[in-house]
Model the fold of this input.
Amino acid sequence: MKILDHRIGKEYPMPAYATPGAAAFDLVACLPPDADTALLYSDDLDVPGGSRSLIGTGIAVEIPVGYVGILSIRSSIGAKLGVSMANCIGIIDSDYRGEVKVCIENHSGRAAIIHSGERIAQLTIVPVLTPEIQIVDELSDTTRGTGGFGSTGKN
Done:
């Protein structure tokens, strides 16, 4: 992991697993300098209802080959503010080296206030398989077959 924002580890906590049983580590919002001053950092981000915002986390990661980072919104942020990630989850490939950013979408009818330094997302590192893609004329039969949405609950 590379720290890109000098506030990480000083003003804001280092990315960390919150408990020994946690599958993901928390990431905080690192809001950029205020456009008017270019020196002072913004404390809050106002995300109006129905809009999106891209929020930096102040870190970059080097995920080992054979693994992928799965980025998701913290459930407490979603529940409290009515926001989610604009694309539901984020995929961070092992060859990406840029800043990890979270694109949130506000589904509520009111502004969502994101505080700089607030835990907004979590990152899970999981193994990934990359099987060879083959084109075939048929697939093997299963009990379910081609039954789609809700088909497994029918008699």
Observations:
- The first helix runs from residue 75 to 81.
- The helical segments are 75-81.
- The mean pLDDT is 89.
- The first strand starts at residue 2 and ends at 3.
